[in-house]
Write a structure and sequence with these properties.
Blueprint: H1 2-32, E1 40-41, E2 47-48, H2 50-66, E3 71-74, E4 78-80, E5 86-94, H3 96-100, E6 108-115, E7 118-126, E8 131-133, E9 151-153, H4 157-160, H5 164-176, E10 179-181, H6 187-193, E11 199-205, H7 207-210, H8 213-219, E12 223-225, E13 247-252, H9 255-269
Parallel strand pairs: 3-5, 9-10, 9-11
Antiparallel strand pairs: 1-2, 3-4, 5-6, 6-7, 7-8, 11-13, 12-13
């Protein structure tokens, strides 16, 4: 497994992510130049563009050329051979709304690999630095054990937690936090691994939103639990599940903070 993991990591770092970022950069420049990038609204009311679609096509082509027996699950083109032992999970442009808002600090590219449903490796492509990193080598430093001292992020409270009780619960967390950031998408998790944030709370994530991030978070020593309190390290994805299946996560730089956020969330939901 370790030999394969090295090969897969090199493949992502040296081939997949550089190609993905090249395609994204090309379409971003086209968009900045005022050219049409064919923005559509999908059935889930989220936008997609040629940047999303062409980036995923490029990644899929390289995977199928190199590992034709592997499966693929992607946001734009769905499942392919998903019952294989190795399944690649792709979100070619996480944060399309921020891409369209011309905010490069709010979007990135996610590439992950599952082995029999277990996250094996993940890579987050940072559009600004034009780099992806499969793992974070040094555990992040713990900076806060309580919500009142914590810098917390969520993609959008209203968008991710539309249920009134859940929305109330996250707004309680938002009100107690030292600071609370939104509209960062996957980049919030990057900031968490770098120590610029202390925690992230999300819901309504698809498999391709979360699976690529988990190995990165685990390697950085981040506590990752579901909104029911289960530890993500112990969970396996069902690759046969409907792509509409959604997941939640509380990711924090220490377990005490994660549990404090979880308790506040649960208290708010049951209030």
């Amino acid at each position: 497994m370790s030999e394969n993991l090295t090969k897969f990591s090199n493949f992502v770092n040296d081939t997949l992510m550089p190609e993905a970022l090249d395609v994204l950069r090309d379409y971003y420049q086209r968009y900045l130049d005022g050219k049409d990038i064919d923005v559509v609204v999908k059935s889930d009311s989220t936008p997609a563009s040629l940047a999303d679609r062409e980036t995923e096509k490029a990644i899929r082509t390289l995977i199928k050329e190199t590992y034709p027996d592997h499966g693929i699950i992607g946001e734009e083109f769905g499942k392919e051979n998903e019952t294989a032992d190795y399944v690649w999970v792709l979100d070619p442009l996480d944060g399309t709304k921020q891409f369209l808002a011309k905010n490069p600090a709010g979007f990135g590219c996610l590439i992950g690999l599952l082995y029999k449903g277990k996250p094996l490796l993940g890579c987050l492509g940072d559009f600004i630095s034009e780099q992806g990193q499969v793992t974070i080598s040094n555990p992040v430093e713990t900076t806060s054990h309580s919500i009142e001292l914590a810098r917390i992020a969520c993609t959008t409270v209203d968008g991710m937690f539309p249920d009134p009780l859940e929305n109330h619960a996250v707004n309680v967390i938002k009100g107690r936090a030292k600071s609370f950031s939104e509209d960062l998408n996957c980049m919030a998790f990057k900031h968490l691994t770098e120590g610029a944030l202390d925690a992230v709370i999300e819901q309504d994530l698809a498999i391709y939103d979360i699976a690529p991030l988990l190995p990165i978070l685990f390697e950085a020593g981040i506590t990752c639990i579901t909104l029911n309190g289960q530890h993500w390290e112990n969970l396996v994805f069902d690759v046969n599940a409907n792509l509409n299946t959604k997941y939640g996560i509380i990711a924090a730089n220490n377990q005490q903070l994660a549990l404090d956020i979880l308790k506040t969330y649960k208290d708010g939901v049951t209030a």
